[in-house]
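Complex 287.
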Amino acid sequence: MAIVGEKGAMRQWSRSQRQCGRRIALVPTMGFLHEGHLSLVSEAKQRAEKVVVSIYVNPGQFAPGEDLDVYPRDFDGDVEKLKPLGVDIIFNPRDLYVRDSPEKNGAGHETWIRVENLEKPLCGGSRPLFFRGVATVVSKLLNIVEPDVVVFGKKDYQQWRVLSRMVRDLDFGVEVVGCKLVREADGLAMSSRNVRLTATERKNALAIFHSLKRAEELVRSGETDSSVLIEQAVSAISHAGGRVDYASIVDQETLQSVDKVASPSVFAIAAWFGSVRLLDNVELPNS
Ligand SMILES: Nc1ncnc2c1ncn2[C@@H]1O[C@H](COP(=O)(O)OP(=O)(O)OP(=O)(O)O)[C@@H](O)[C@H]1O
Ligand SMILES: CC(C)(CO)[C@@H](O)C(=O)[O-]
Ligand code: BAL
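Predicted structure with beta-alanine bound:
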């Protein structure tokens, strides 16, 4: 497993692999890896001969005042976790944006990608520049690594949908794969940010998962009214001391709210426990 920090070297490696006819899969991450990330690597290994994992905490997707400075990092630990998995390259770019290179004399990055409608609901409400940053950095990674397949997790459901749309709309020559959300043994969605929860917040945050499970059960027993499903979730999370950013039942493709659970929909929640904002979701069964 090699660690590559320079984008020219990354591109050169990819091109030489492709010239030999080898398929490349890319797994983009921000590091502090957990089993959720490792499941993406397994999926990538199934789909390509060569696997690149990128580790880059992208400043371009954090607004001022968000948690960029305290985002968990453990590069050496990540390397150890990836070693046994047969990953070929860890791409840990030092020079991703022009502003990262002092010799460019302040000539800054000024090109941004917007996925105009899909970026607006859900996370787009409280993080209006988030998907602009994500779409732009993922475009850069795709242009540098030139993978055949790129793998994302459905824990970040809207992110997966936004990036799939971007790839389709802009004709990137890559297949986008969405992998199922991986949970801790007690049900909490795995997330790098979980480490920032206190023990009490960690316990209370389970209310998110329990309320989504409850919604699933209600749908199975015939409840289709979104407002009923949402109210029980908001109430359970608030009782547990959480602050709901959004709790929305939306169409799986358009991410527009639905009043009734009648077609493929997803119940997506973002909620704060202490200073940590957590995401979770379930794809709801059709009633
Ligand atoms: N629990 C999970 N199950 C499946 N995929 C996941 C899970 N957690 C993260 N991923 C996926 O891993 C990729 C990298 O995500 P990232 O490095 O931001 O980790 P994260 O755990 O989502 O961190 P955080 O939410 O704290 O930013 C994304 O495609 C994301 O959806
Ligand atoms: C896709 C991504 C690596 C872009 O920085 C990030 O948003 C993430 O880790 O989910
Ligand atoms: N996985 C989400 C990345 C972020 O919250 O910035």
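The first strand starts at residue 2 and ends at 4.
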